[in-house]
Design the sequence.
């Protein structure tokens, strides 16, 4: 009989954990959409909210109207929300989307009607273009996009990830009304360096918390608990390790089960994966079997025969574990 044959038992679909099963498991997504990796910002283009400092050599009354002792930004000209900028003698100029060189040439041409061969220099001293951040970052202050292009890794480095509470596999880059999910954990595994992604004005970064990304380990283990994890996945070996492992006095190695789909059990059969931990290859299989958020790992004292009754009991049990974990999470946050 094929080891992969599914055995239906009421509301349960039984699947043995075999080498064939773990080899077919889902792999973390490491590919980034081409539209993200291929984007390269060109020369800086002026945006509403920028502050422009215009220097007209030999004409301090135009260059430093607020006084030479003031900071550069005080003598700058603010680009209005409609993209225009007012400058003496040049009037209102629609500067939105211009490069710095294009603005310099425009002002030079307009001022030449009043000044003899004006020598004009243009600099951006305040930036209105920003990338916003939300979620499990230490610092969610919006970051400016300056004349030096900003990469995703630089933005994350400046914001600092809250490593204890972040879901590293769930970063979302929102751009042009589209959401791109980026698995930071998978991209940087095994010493790999992720491809550079340059950010655009208006980009939004959201890094979710991992407080809802839980696995429940119960039964004959040393420390039954709800486990949060921040990476793409967690293996069965890691989950059992965090609970101290199987109880050597009461557990039976042949009764290690992973129950998946408990929350939807009333609408569809739950899937139960069985690991025979007495097998010599069990540790290798457990280390390659990836768990998902919401999975319940149950270690029993013997083989389970009445799955319907057991799974019915899991529904209130997972609720209790979840509520307890949430209460502890709130207490920890309040005390910080």
Sequence:
């Amino acid at each position: 009989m094929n080891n992969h044959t599914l055995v239906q038992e009421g509301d349960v679909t039984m699947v043995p954990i075999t080498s064939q099963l773990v080899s077919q498991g889902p792999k973390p997504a490491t590919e980034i959409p081409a539209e993200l990796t291929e984007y390269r910002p060109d020369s800086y283009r002026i945006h509403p909210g920028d502050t422009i400092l215009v220097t007209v050599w030999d004409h301090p009354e135009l260059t430093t109207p607020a006084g030479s002792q003031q900071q550069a930004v005080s003598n700058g000209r603010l680009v209005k929300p409609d993209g225009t900028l007012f400058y003496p003698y040049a009037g209102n100029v629609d500067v939105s989307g211009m490069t710095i060189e294009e603005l310099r040439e425009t002002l030079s041409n307009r001022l030449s009607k009043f000044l003899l061969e004006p020598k004009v220099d243009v600099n951006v001293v305040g930036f209105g273009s920003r990338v916003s951040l939300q979620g499990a970052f230490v610092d969610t202050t919006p970051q400016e996009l300056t004349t030096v292009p900003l990469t995703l890794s630089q933005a994350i480095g400046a914001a600092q990830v809250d490593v204890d509470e972040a879901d590293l596999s769930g970063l979302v880059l929102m751009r042009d009304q589209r959401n791109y999910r980026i698995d930071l954990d998978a991209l940087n595994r095994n010493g790999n360096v992720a491809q550079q992604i340059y950010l655009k004005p208006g980009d939004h970064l959201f890094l979710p918390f991992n407080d809802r990304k839980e696995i429940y380990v119960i039964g004959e283990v040393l420390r039954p608990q709800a486990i949060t994890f921040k990476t793409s996945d967690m293996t069965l070996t890691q989950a059992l390790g965090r609970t101290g492992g199987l109880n050597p006095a009461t557990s039976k190695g042949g009764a290690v089960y992973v129950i998946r789909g408990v929350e939807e059990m009333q609408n569809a059969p739950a899937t139960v994966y069985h690991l025979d931990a007495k097998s010599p290859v069990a540790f290798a299989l457990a280390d390659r079997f990836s768990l998902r958020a919401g999975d319940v790992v149950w270690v029993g004292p013997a083989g389970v025969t009445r799955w319907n009754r057991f799974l019915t009991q899991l529904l209130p049990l997972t609720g209790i574990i979840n509520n307890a974990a949430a209460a502890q999470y709130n207490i920890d946050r309040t005390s910080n």
